[in-house]
Amino acid sequence: MNRSGSNWRVTPLIAACAILLAGCATIALLSEAAYQQTISLKVDTLALMDKAIEPYTQHQSEVSDLMLMIEKAYEYARGRPKNAISAQQWEILRNPDGHLVGGFMRAWQDKQELSRTFIDDAKGVVADAFDTISALESGKPRVKSARIDRGG
Known about the structure:
- It is a single chain.
- It is built from 6 helices and no strands.
- The longest helix is centred in the last third of the chain and has 23 residues, at 116-138.
- It has one domain (32-138).
- Helix 2 (32-50) packs antiparallel against helix 3 (60-79), helix 2 (32-50) runs antiparallel to helix 6 and helix 3 (60-79) packs antiparallel against helix 4 (84-94).
- The two termini are 45 Å apart.
- The protein is mainly α and 152 residues long.
C-alpha cells in the first residue's frame, strides 16, 4: 500500500481541524468578573437614571463615580485578548456624544433635569445595550476545567 497517498487524505482533515480550532480562538473566553460587572453596572446605571428628574448638581458625584466604573469596565474589556467586540460595545455605551449612558449623562448635565418620559425611554435603550454586552459575555466559550482522577 502506498503511504504517501494516504497522507494526502489525512492532511486535509488535519488542516480542517486546525482551521476550526483557530476559528474558535478568535473570541475571548468567558470572564465571570466581566459578566458580573456588567450586571452590576446595569442596575446602578438604571437606578441613577431614575434620579434625573432631580437637578444634576445633586447627583454629580454619583454620575462621576458611575462613569468611572464604566470607564474601568471599558478598559478591562479593551485589555483582554481577542475581546474587540466587547470593547466596542463598551465604547458605544460610554460615548458622551451617543445615545446611551454617556449621552444621557451629558444631556442631564446640560439640561439639569430631564422629563420622566425621556428617562423611561432612555432606560429601555440603555438596558438593552447592557443586555447585549452581558449576552455577548455569557455566550463566550468557558474555560474547561481539568478533571483530576483521584483513583479509587
